């Protein structure tokens, strides 16, 4: 073997060793600070001892294991969660945030980890128990004509009713776009607040994510709460729930996408969904 060839092989070996060391070092040092709301059960909530729990807290731990990352999970009020991400107070958001065109103007998103279903809930005995489509679901993005027909069925029952919804959410956007001429919209800072107003008769119904209703209905005081009407997704509700990330950080996005994809394929997302929602809300194209 010639001297030149030996030198080339030695150089290649040194470069390869450097890459391996750098790769290992990056894997060992990778860390993320991840924000969640901490008041949107069962997606995320704060226990009486101050610890965070819920579907997204469990999922975050699973994703971090797959990314070989050390993760710190912190609570952040909903109104400040996107500004906090872009101010680099944390690196990612897992907080029941739907992927919408409007949000994609200011943040990037991973692939979805939950398909997202929103709808109405009311108290047993309410006239709104008769809302059409209870137990059914509709993708309003692929079937807009069916939404128009559904709204025509809903509006006579909803006319003049007060509907509670968390402010600055896709639920609030939906009510503003499709039902502002039919109902009185009462916006709240958290879903817990509109749940209590439903219980106390200050609103006739609430509009939120169905998994949130599932968690609320497990509380003794809410035994008479019922989900009513068709559950909706797609269209203004976006393409599912994903991890919100800062723009122009493709490496971080790839880490999360790969981890989510693995967790979907091996059934982890389904298992966590069944544990927390009693429903399989694994993303679907249907």
From TrEMBL:
UniProt keywords, alphabetically: Signal
PROSITE patterns assigned to the protein according to its UniProt record, in alphabetical order: SBP_BACTERIAL_3
Signal sequence bounds: 1-22
Domain of life per record: Bacteria
Solute-binding protein family 3/N-terminal domain segment(s): 31-280
Subcellular localization: Cell envelope
Database matches in Pfam families: SBP_bac_3
Gene Ontology CC annotation, any one: cell envelope
Protein's UniProt keywords contain Signal: yes
Family: Belongs to the bacterial solute-binding protein 3 family.
This protein's name: Transporter substrate-binding domain-containing protein
Organism, scientific name: Brucella anthropi
